Amino acid sequence: MSFKSLAKLYWDKRGKTYDKAPGHTEFEYVWERLILAVINKFNIKPFRALDAGCGTGFLAKILQKYKINVICLDIAEGMLKQAKTKLKNSLYVDFIQGDCEKTPLRDYTVDVVVSRHVLWTLERPHIAIVRWIQTLRKGGVVIVFDGKWHPKSRKLRLIQLMFTTWNLIKNRTNIFLGLKYNILRGRHRDNIDIVDNILSKSRIFYRTYNLTRVRNLLRLVSRQLRIWRSQYYMIVVRKLLA
Largest alpha-carbon pair distance within the chain? Predict the structure, then answer.
């Protein structure tokens, strides 16, 4: 079974219990402030947005409050099912099942792309980001939230494995499937350097930003969530030319 097929099967099964895991639904106001900080910084008036790897619709729920038309994209049917239930009363959300690395949208069709807790799960995260930039209109932004979830020390990795196993049992997920996926996923850990390197060589006209206000909010997120003593990172990419 390929990594992508395994990932799809795993997240299909995680859909029902995903929102119960630590860090997945807490502190909505913090994530809202992070997104608005970027949108306001560049004076963007978003009409259409893509929530790439939407999961159960956490970020889409935030965006649709501002009457932004949101396309929820996820490879896992189980995740989309939960998102549809959560956002069933929204007039501003559409759903597409698809692969983030092959985002099935036309170029120059969205103003904002948001993604949270997705990049680290992908086999080729740099391909996904380049594709997201291609879907942007001129002046649009890609806003990515993720973290370095894989500790370097052997002791912490063992603790993480034990915690993962316990969560799989508690959430009634197939343990063999879950552990196999998480071990394979570990090979793609901390892809931030890969992404930065690939973007610097791409032919897309873009600029990455590290905003002081955003850094301060990210510190707040990391302090409040305290998942694996991990440090969140954020990528902000603005498309300069069409």
Answer: 49
The residue extents of the domains of the chain are: 21-149+187-239
β pairing state of 206-209 and 232-239:
antiparallel
In this predicted structure, what is the pLDDT of residue 80? 96
Tokens of residue 116, six digits: 């949270």
- The radius of gyration computed from the CA coordinates of the chain, to the nearest angstrom, equals 17
Residues 139 and 112: beta-carbon distance below 8 Å? no
* Cβ atoms of 70 and 112 closer than 8 Å: no
Strands (E), the chain: 48-52, 69-74, 93-97, 110-116, 136-147, 206-209, 232-239
pLDDT tens-digit map of 114-157: 999 888 788 888 889 889 999 999 999 999 888 766 555 555 55
At 8, list the tokens: 């799809």
CB 145 within 8 A of CB 121: no
Segment 195-207 mean pLDDT: 53
| pLDDT tens track for 225-235 | 554 445 667 78
Burial class (CB in 10 A: 0-12, 13-18, 19+), 97: middle
Cα–Cα distance for residue pair 87/51, rounded to 1 Å: 13
What pLDDT is recorded for position 95?
A: 97
CATH architecture of 21-149+187-239: 3-Layer(aba) Sandwich (3.40)
Q: Is the pLDDT score of 203 beyond 50?
A: no
